[in-house]
Specification:
Distance between the termini: 63 Å
Structural class: alpha/beta
Number of strands: 5
Helix content: 55-70%
Order of helices and strands: HHHHHHHHEHEHEHEHEHH
Length: 286
C-alpha cells in the first residue's frame, strides 16, 4: 500500500491539523515534493513542527523520508514503457529479463530524481554556478566519475573548474577557496567522510556548498547551502551504484544544458573545443 493510499485511508481518523496536512499531500503530491517543511506549513497555514510530527506519526524519521515515500508512490503511477520491467534482478533471470529490469530501474531513478527537485532550486543552483569565480567538484567512488564528467562539460564552457580524484588534493584545493567560489559535492549516502570533511572546510572558508545527495537526512545535506536530491533504488543493483550514478548524471546533464542556454557564447566555446579535438582525431587517422 503506497503512502498516499495510507494517508487517504487514515484521513477521517486524523486530528484536524493532521487532516489538513494529509489532505494537501493526497491532493497535491507533485507540489508537496517541491516544498520544504516551512513552505508546506505556510501553504496550508500550519506550523513547521506540525509537518515534521505528521511525518513521524506515519512512521518516517523525517519529512525528507516522507517525501521519498511520496516520490516512490508517484513513480509507481508512471506508465512503464512497453517491454520494460520494474523489479529486482534475480540470479535466475535470463538475459532479456535482466535487460528489461535494468532499463526499468534506470528510467524510474531518473523520473523520481526529476520529480524530487523543484524548478526554483534548479534555477538557484544555476545562478550560483553561472556566477561562481571558481567551481570545485568533489566526490569519491562512482560520484567522482560523475564529478569528472561534469567538470569536463563545464570546462568546455570556459568555466574555471577544479577537480581531482585524490581526496587529499581535493582538500588542498578547497583550502584555496573563498567567498564567490562554489563547491559542488556529490554523495548519494551523504556520509562519505572525505566529501563531508571537504564540504565542512568549504563552509568555513565562506564558500557556497551545493550538495547532490539522497532524500534521506544525512550529514552532507546538513552542511550544504543548496540541496539537490537524487533518488536511486540501490537495493535492486547491489554490485555498484548504478542507479545513483544515473540519477546524478541526470541532474548534472540538466544543469549543463541550462548553462549552455544561459551563456551567450556557449556555442562558440563548444565549437572551439570540438575543433581542437578534431585535430587530434585527424592526426590519429593519418
Amino acid at each position: 500500500m503506497s503512502v498516499l493510499n495510507r494517508i487517504n485511508a487514515k484521513l477521517d481518523a486524523m486530528a484536524p491539523g493532521d487532516r489538513e496536512i494529509g489532505q494537501y499531500i493526497v491532493d497535491n503530491p507533485d507540489q508537496m515534493l517541491r516544498l520544504s517543511t516551512a513552505a508546506l506549513a505556510a501553504e496550508i497555514g500550519r506550523s513547521q513542527s506540525s509537518v515534521v510530527k505528521f511525518s513521524q506519526k506515519l512512521g518516517y524519521a523525517s519529512y525528507q523520508e516522507l517525501k521519498l515515500a511520496v516520490s516512490e508512490a508517484k513513480a509507481q503511477e508512471w506508465q512503464v514503457p512497453a517491454g520494460v520491467i520494474h523489479g529486482s534482478i534475480e540470479v535466475g533471470d535470463n538475459y532479456q529479463v535482466i535487460l528489461k529490469k535494468l532499463i526499468g530501474s534506470k528510467l524510474l531513478s531518473m523520473q523520481q530524481t526529476v520529480a524530487a527537485n523543484s524548478e526554483r532550486i534548479i534555477s538557484r543552483t544555476l545562478e550560483l554556478l553561472d556566477g561562481a569565480r571558481r567551481i570545485h567538484l568533489v566526490g569519491v567512488g562512482a560520484s567522482s566519475l560523475v564529478a569528472r564528467d561534469f567538470s569536463y562539460k563545464l570546462m568546455k564552457l570556459g568555466r574555471n573548474v577544479l577537480h581531482d580524484s585524490d581526496s587529499h588534493i581535493q582538500m588542498a584545493n578547497v583550502s584555496t577557496l573563498g567567498p564567490g567560489d562554489v563547491l559542488f559535492a556529490l554523495s548519494y549516502s551523504g556520509a562519505s567522510i572525505e566529501t563531508l570533511r571537504i564540504a565542512e572546510l568549504a563552509r568555513k572558508r565562506g564558500t557556497m556548498v551545493i550538495a547532490v545527495t539522497g532524500l534521506h537526512d544525512n550529514p552532507l545535506s546538513r552542511v550544504a547551502d543548496i540541496r539537490l536530491y537524487t533518488v536511486a533504488d540501490e537495493e535492486r543493483a547491489r554490485s555498484s551504484s548504478i542507479t545513483a550514478r544515473d540519477a546524478q548524471l541526470t541532474l548534472t546533464d540538466l544543469l549543463f544544458i541550462l548553462l549552455v542556454q544561459k551563456q551567450p557564447d556557449a556555442n562558440d566555446y563548444v565549437h572551439n573545443s570540438e575543433a581542437a579535438v578534431s585535430v587530434l582525431k585527424a592526426d590519429r587517422a593519418s
